[in-house]
Design a protein that fits this description.
Layout lengths: L25 H4 L40 E9 L3 H11 L4 H10 L3 H20 L7 E10 L3 E6 L5 E6 L2 E9 L1
Helix pairs in contact: 2-4, 3-4
Length: about 180
């Protein structure tokens, strides 16, 4: 669904339709996001819960862990639109951690506060995990994914009913502490 040209003041304000995912993207360069090897036990057989047999086939994939210098935080089930949250995240892309926090603190948009809190949480996690050494945190990635959609009844005239969709968002922040 396109936007009428009269609604958009400049070409830079048009929404980004497709994200360019190429081999030079951040996630392609990070080897820790590759699927893990199957789990083996000292006896040499694969346990049933890790993929050995039909019952464990669904549980074969184990989420990869981040290396120790990367710290993450998740803000889940936020009552925000994922599209509007991605707009706020797009504004801070490429900025340093301090510049991103300053931009979010001054932003009038509603999702900015939630993204600010998620970045603060990741920063607190980095400080707690690396308390023994001096760190210089660097913002690696901030992503907003769709959460479940809550549906609420909306009663209308003449006994009719509609459904109000209440979207939710999951925000994930990854910080590199070195």
């Amino acid at each position: 669904m396109g936007y009428p040209s009269a609604c958009i003041s400049s070409p830079s304000r048009q929404p980004q339709r497709h994200q360019d995912v190429s081999s030079s993207s951040l996630f392609a360069q990070l080897s820790f996001l590759a699927p893990p090897d199957p789990i083996t036990v000292p006896g040499g057989e694969v346990p049933a819960a890790a993929g050995g047999g039909a019952a464990g086939a669904a549980a074969a994939f184990v989420a990869p862990r981040l290396p120790p210098q990367y710290v993450e935080s998740n803000a889940r089930y936020l009552r925000l639109s994922p599209i509007k949250t991605r707009r706020v995240i797009q504004e801070i892309r490429g900025k340093s951690l301090a510049a991103a926090l300053a931009h979010l603190a001054a932003s009038p948009r509603r999702p900015a506060f939630a993204v600010f809190r998620a970045i603060e949480s990741a920063l607190a996690n980095a400080i707690q995990l690396h308390a023994d050494k001096q760190i210089q945190p660097q913002l690696v990635s901030v992503t907003a994914t769709n959460g479940p959609v809550f549906k609420r009844p909306f009663f209308k005239a003449r006994g009719r009913m509609d459904i109000w969709r209440r979207p939710t968002t999951h925000v994930k922040v990854i910080i590199k502490a070195f």
